[in-house]
Amino acid sequence: MTLWGASLYSWGMDTNNNETEELELKQLEARVEELIQTCAVLKDENHSLRQHQDNLVSERSKLIEKTETARIRVEAMINRLKAMESNHE
What's the whole-model pTM score? Predict the structure, then answer.
C-alpha cells in the first residue's frame, strides 16, 4: 500500500471510529436521560408513598385513641352494671 493509500485507509478508519464513538455517545446520552427520568418518577412516587404512610400513621393513631375511649366506656358500663346488680341482691 502506498503512503497515500495508507493515509486514505487510516482516514477511513478514523471516520468509522468517530461514527462508532458518536453512536455510542448518543446511546449513552439516551440511557442517562432515561435514568434521569426514572429517578424523577421514583422521587415523585417516593414522595407520594411517604404522604400515604403519614396519613395511615395518623389514621392508626386516631383509631387507637377511639378504641381506648370505647374500652374505657365499656369498662365503665360493666362496672355500673355490676354495681346495679350488687344493689339489687
Answer: 0.60
